Amino acid sequence: MSVVSNSRTLDFAQRMSRLGTETAFAVSAEAAAFAGEGNKVYPFHIGDLNLPTPENIVAATHDAMRAGKTGYGSNYGLAELRAALAANINASHGTSYTAENVLVQPGGKPVIGKFFLALLNSGDEALYPNPGYPIYESQIEFNGGKALPYGYREGAGNFEIDLAQLERAITPRTRFLVFNNLQNPTGAESSRTELEQVAEIARKHDLMVLCDEAYQGIVYGAAPTSLVSLPGMADRTVILYTFSKTYAMTGWRLGAAIGPKPLIDAMAKLAVNDESCTNTFIQYGGIEALTGDQSGSRNNLAILEERRDIAVDLLNSIPGFRCFKPGSTFYLFPNVTGAMAALGTEDYEAFRRLVLKETGVSFTTRGHFGRPGQSEPQRYVRLAYSGIDKDQIHEGLMRLKQFMTRA
Fold first, then answer.
1. Does the predicted model carry a pTM greater than 0.85?
2. Which domains does the chain have, with CATH numbers?
């Protein structure tokens, strides 16, 4: 891969050809261009929040800035924040972490890269969910690994992991498992039985696990069990924690890796070489998020639950759509096989663009969350209700219903 710049050839490293991206951002740009032409857009395409960061978090961050907390910090993060994160996880997971098990990061995404950079050797295999967050596959392959997808299937009340497919994919070179309970894009939440089966597979095949818990705070019912809580899992698991979703802090870029101390130390060494440290004053906002008044976050969660209920009810009234009501995340992953057939297309992008053009409803598709397998006859799209108000959800999905009724 090379380009010519100022009469000199610029040759990129071969690994750059293995680096993926988030194609959902291309959908966002397309929707923005469509809106710029004077069209109404109903933004279900991006997993950002249009809800405010709770004021007490903003105030604590502002106070830290005014107090001069603007210099370099430890590459591990503030001791107070690390301790607060350990205490928070212990309370919800029944674990016994200390601050030494915590590495503060500038968001949740850097945890993925540092996990694989610290552990993965060229040719190692890593299992990852597909459909799933596309950065898993990107980082596995960028770091010289082989990405092994495992999928989901429709169960009685929500999506379930295809455990048989997962275990069939394992070879003697398989060393890692990426597990995302409260899953993006499906909204799947593992039952206790499913968690125990996943844990058994990890122990049986001696897999290191990256447990992405980005949506652990976006739960509308009983708190879920974490994979790390099960016997034998804490010593082989790194939790990806992020403040982005629970506390409406997507743009703040604050997260953490929580896991075995030797691996946390190795990832901290990478942090020195990468970003030196996480933004200092924002970490004081993180301390307040964990230890301060929780009413702002509870209010945001209640708003999200109302949005979910409206969206699910409307989607299930649209010809050709069938949608579960997940108990967590802010994503819906309706089956649109019938809708696409009614419009005479099997092409995801043709379907997405037609719906945008005719209704203004903008969403991503299953194709934005990993390469669909050959044995996937059903078609799905993802709608995020985190960045669109209730009245706009109703208006947009009613327009979609009218369009599909005419199809």
1. yes
2. 7-52+296-406 (3.90.1150.10), 71-291 (3.40.640.10)
